[in-house]
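From the thread on structure requests for the teaching lab: each student submitted one protein with a one-line request. Submission from student K.M.:

"Model Putative zinc-type alcohol dehydrogenase-like protein YjmD from Bacteroides cellulosilyticus, tokens only."
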Amino acid sequence: MKAVQIVNPSEMKVVELEKPVVGAGEVLVRIKYVGFCGSDLNTFLGRNPMVKLPVVPGHEVGAVIEEIGPDVPVGFEKGMNVTLNPYTNCGKCASCRNGRVNACEHNETLGVQRNGVMCEYAVLPWTKIIPAGDISPRDCALIEPMSVGFHAVSRGQVIDNEYVMVIGCGMIGIGAIVRAALRGAIVIAVDLDDEKLELARRMGASHTVNSKTEDVHSRIQEITEGFGADVVIEAVGSPVTYVMAVDEVAFSGRVVCIGYAKSEVAFQTKYFVQKELDIRGSRNALPADFRAVINYMKAGTCPVEELITKVAVPEDALEAMTEWAANPGKVFRILVQL
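Reply posted by the TA:
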């Protein structure tokens, strides 16, 4: 079968791999669309320490069930549109013991710690197959990254009437904006790009702030009547935005961290104490987050066309990734159609 493989930094090619065979408790899926995500870009640029090259990227998936192995429970049918839960969990670490399997100490995400599914076929345990109803395979590839943003809102325990500041309006940040708005929060979207901020408004943000051209602190104070944001969700992963999150959160507020900063971050730790902050990490997503995204997309209000920047075939994946690396701020999602 055909597959896309990152061989070395800046080197990607189409290779032939053996088609997998379905076993007991497993489902064979025909992969239709796979999204490139930030971890794939970092792998391509040689900045992902968790990856051992060569690797098949891809864990944002739209697929169709091709074959069902023995011992798979009722509810899975050939031809069903599905997405995949791309994470593993060991069942034994502290996170698993506490029911937070998304944060498993020994997690292996498809396309990161193990080969992904940017290939024509894949076999997974039935527990990792998520039926998506009438959502098209193309749009199914948007479910996983949005679920990461949905999960961050759950980690922040967002409720109605709270001010929620989302820093970064990429795909994951957009997911956080959607779910916070669905919960009745007043969402403030912050980004460097006016086009992304305009989309954030259409996705549910009540206010937008361009951190490149506006004074973020004065705008947040103005919007929140001097209190600051009840919840700040950091979805960029830079020292500047981490410090911004702590500066702009209200006293007794919550900061939720999704992005990884690639270098050390210097904080005024007095704010941790003076504001009595809750600072929380948010990793991956839980099955409930996937279901919430699917329910949202089934409602038909998600502007999916605006979230898909480009659809490429495997032979053009290198060109698409190179273009993204050159101008990352202008890309929401690049999909590869297999």
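TA comment: Residues 2-142+302-337 form a domain with the Quinone Oxidoreductase; Chain A, domain 1 fold (CATH 3.90.180.10). The radius of gyration is 20 Å.
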